[in-house]
Amino acid sequence: MGKKALVTGVTGQDGAYLAALLLSKGYEVHGLVRPSSTKSTERLSAYLDKITLHYGDLSDGGVITRLLQNIQPDEIYNLAAQSHVHISFDMAEYTGNVDGLGVTRLLETIRSLNLIDKVKFYQASTSELFGKTQISPQNENTPFAPCSPYAAAKLYAYWMVRNYRDTYGLFACNGILFNHESPLRGENFVTRKVTQFAADIARGQKKTLALGNLEARRDWGHAEDFVRGMWLMLQADEADDYVLATGQTHTVRYLVETAFKQIDISIDWIGAALDEKGVNSRTGETLIEISKDHFRPAEVDLLRGDSSKARQKLGWEKKYDFETLIKEMVEADLGREITPEETRVNLRAV
Ligand code: NAP
Ligand code: GDD
Question: Nearest residue CA, atom 30 of ligand 2?
Fold first, then answer.
């Protein structure tokens, strides 16, 4: 019989890619979904009949207990989180409850149900832990310097995972994942915001897009590559923590230029600071404006990861480069508008 996996955050970007991967490997997949008055399972549309969904929320310990008791999973992938860094500044307490304490609720339930020797646990840790570090590239030994409520909550979770591994012997791994994107990326993250806008411009639909810090640098990879790394961590002989990253970093400005290149528009930048604009170099039309609303109270300036450990110990390799990722995202956003029903991104078995 195949293994049983419970995926929290299954309705999110990574949840959808991971569910596809686990199904392709013969797993019985269970997913935690939040009760909602609108449909939140759109990303899973190709797989809905193959996944067992359970209502629940990481802020509710009772439901977690009942679920683990009933499902008795072999592997738990904890992907659920309030995952938006900017929003976490306005929802600090909620973010701490879900992204921090939510992890403790899962770990404590595993312990109290005597599942320590049965279950393997993956925690969606993050490169945001490195925050204000001056060290680049960042690896598993780089000191953490979180600078948002999101990162602080994830740091607490990171240490709880290590504690349950060291103290009780739970097979528990922190995947310290750098930014990863896809056509299923949430619309309020910068890559998707830009690729959707480029697609709108190609269709003649929108005029300008407001962005924040164009100089922030991120190490952007593809979610399909990264969920494979999550799975590999739980198949290793020993539980450990791993960085997954591409090793390349680009500015938000370069992201904009790359996305517009896909629709044969080149961008000229004129002006400075809040008055800077990105204009269509052929027509002079303003496409990008800067708004202070999109700057964060504290910014992570530079992320670039070193995933040598994952390469050596897990045999993990990325398949996508940045340009291919952005091309796929723009194409998907272009396709979506033309045939809304059919072009909902069809997840490939990865
Ligand atoms: P995402 O698209 O924002 O998905 C987050 C998921 O968590 C959604 O399914 C969401 O449900 C669920 N969720 C939110 N609050 C919850 C709660 N209180 N109880 C139960 N479920 C809840 O995020 P993602 O990009 O797939 O990322 C997955 C995980 O990896 C997150 O923990 C994120 O912090 C972490 N991470 C992501 C990246 C990245 O670049 N993508 C990098 C490092 C770490 P709804 O659909 O109902 O909102
Ligand atoms: N969202 C957004 N919107 N970001 C913008 C904008 C804008 O209009 N303009 C500039 N940025 C900059 C942000 O200031 C940040 O430096 C960068 O673009 C990336 O922002 P996001 O796409 O929102 O992602 P993130 O890096 O803050 O967080 C993502 O990656 C983390 C891993 O490093 C999320 O997926 C987190 O959950 C994840 O942990």
Answer: 179
